[in-house]
Amino acid sequence: MCSFLVSETIQYYKSHGSDVYMLSLDASKAFDRVKYTKLFKLLIERSVFPLVIRFLLNVYIYSSATVKWNNCESEPFSISNGVKQGAIISAPLFAIYIDPLISKLKDAKEGYFIGNLCANAFAYADDIVLLSPSCTALRNLISICEVYAEDFEIRFNPDKCTLMIFSNLKNVNEYVNIMLCGSRIRNITNEKHLGHVFDTRFNHSLNLINIENVIRDMKVRTNTISVQFKPVSWKSKLLFSIVNVYLYTVVSYGDLMTLKLINYAPHGMSVLEGC
C-alpha cells in the first residue's frame, strides 16, 4: 500500500498542475545500525509492557554469533547493535526506530497535504520516500534527515539515493541539483519502488503503477498460501476467501479510507510551496 499512497499523492498534485519531486532514500545496512540504547528508550516512551521490553533486552543484549568458513568455525562474539535479519519482529522494531524521523518530517509541514495530514514522507521498513513541490522544501526535508542520521547513526548512501521529478517542463533534470551528506543525488526518469515501477515520462495516472500486474502477483501469492494451508477447516478457508475478495477490492478500487480521502480531497488538499 505504500507505493499506492505515493502514487495517489503524485497523481493528484500532477493533475492540479504542481511539480512533484520524489526522493528515494537508501540507508546502508539500516537494520544492522540500530542502536539498542535508542531503540529501548523509544519502546519505554511508547509505554510498551515492561516484561516485553525485558524479554527483548535479553534477546538482543545477550546475543552472539560465529563465523563459519568451510569446516572451520570462529569463537562466539557478542552483537552490540542491530536487529536480527529475517526475524518477524525486526520490521516493527525498525519502524519504531525510524518513527522519530517520520514525525519530525511531518511536524516540519514542508511538502504536500491531504486535508490536515502532512503527506511529505512515506516509509516501509527502510525504504523511505520524500515528496515535495519544490527544491527548497525538499532541501529542508533533507536537512532533517541528515540531523536524524547523525543522532541515530543511520548512514544514508547518496550514491544509491535517487531523485525523480514529475514535471511538464522539458529537461528539468539538467537544472536541479539536490545534495545529501555533501554528495549530489542522481536524477533519474524511472525507478522500481517496492516492486512497482514509477516513470516520469508517463504522466497519465494509469501508467504510474500497473494495477493488473499487482493483482496478478497477489493472486499467485494467495493461491500459494491456500495450497500450503489445504488441510485447514472449511471455516478458515471461507474466511481466507473473504479476505481475498477484500484485498482485490482494495487494490482495484481503494479502501474506505482512500474513498473518504478522495471525496474530501477537492476541498481539503493543498500545497505548501517552498519559499
From TrEMBL:
Record PROSITE patterns: RT_POL (PS50878)
GO BP terms in the entry: DNA biosynthetic process
Occurrences of domain Reverse transcriptase (ranges): 1-180
Pfam family, any one: RVT_1
Protein name: Reverse transcriptase domain-containing protein
Organism: Meganyctiphanes norvegica (Northern krill)
